[in-house]
Design brief:
Strand content: under 5%
Helix content: 55-70%
Distance between the termini: 161 Å
Number of helices: 6
Shape: rod-shaped
Largest sheet: none
Structural class: mainly alpha
Radius of gyration: 41 Å
Amino acid sequence: MKSKYVKRSVFDGPLLGSLTVILSLVLSGCASNLPEESPVQPEIEMPISSPLPSPMSPLSYYQLLSRMTPAELGRERMVLAALPRSPNTQLRLAMLFGYPRAQQDMPRAMTQLDLVLKSNDPAAVALHPLARILADNYAERQRMDAYLERQGQQLKESQRKAVELQEKIDDLADIERTLPQRPRAVRPVGSGGAK
């Protein structure tokens, strides 16, 4: 026996078509009011020896440095030195000059960072926060290196003085051994005895 009530879905028949049209109009209206976004460009890792600066971010570049061998770091330094000076290139040079696993040149790294920090170029201004962090980090490393060098010099000086003192003690011991032995003092035997 069939039920006289037929369940109809809201999405059956002409209602479904109307809903679809209304929904598409609403969505297209919302989409037309959205601000236009520039297409997102993926970061591309260019070969290390590429003559063109790659569009990767400075932090990605710093991570790339950690995967390079010392020989590759040397080649990268030559490539960056040959590129025209831009804030991005200067920041990368500073990273490379201050990188711990590469041949460090902290004065040159600080010079590159100063150039970026003093520039009013919009590209440089965008890099100012990172350049300031690197400059602070490099300055602290220079202070620590100077402190460790002073400590090392003080240690060497202390060791030199200890060696000199030990030599003086040894010389005094040699002098003491060469001195003639003193005769033992003999006690005079009392002559008074008993009366």
